Amino acid sequence: MTTFVLAFVSLALVLGIYAFVGLPFGTRWRRLAVSGFFALLLAGLFFGYSDMLGRPKSTRLEVLRSGDKEAKVIGSYILEGSGIYLWLQLPEVKEPRYYVLPWDEKTARSLQKAIEENAQTHGGGIVMRLPYEHSWEWRDPVFHPAPQPKLPDKGGAPPPVLYQAPEQDI
Length: 170
Known about the structure:
The structure is a single chain. The protein is 36% helix and 19% strand. By secondary structure, it is an alpha+beta fold. A six-stranded mixed beta sheet has the order 1-4-3-2-5-6. Helix 1 packs antiparallel against helix 2 (28-52).
């Protein structure tokens, strides 16, 4: 079970307990009407939230990961006049996240320039610095190619094998 389903089931249980225990003084029909209302509310919330799971989240609404200093850009889609859609790999998070930046021509140009530089150099990816900066001063997100990945360490030559004749046994 995912955390989304667990949260939904726990909310349903809490509301159901409230409907039957919190309203004991109402008639049976009133309790059934309240329970039916909560059931419809839960169904609407479940389908609404499950639909929202596939949609991009605005970087302005991010509060849990606002301390991250940079994120790797896995994919991007620029829709002129609407927004800049980014698929980001956040540090210490296994799965990528889907975000949308408000449309800004300078930000779009910066992203396009970083994509071109990345393609011309080593192809190590694109990094976005300060993805969720919350301040009164508006600064454009900074995109740049990721630094060249470190090459694997060379093991060096194995130590030489010394032959010892049986008469050399000490």
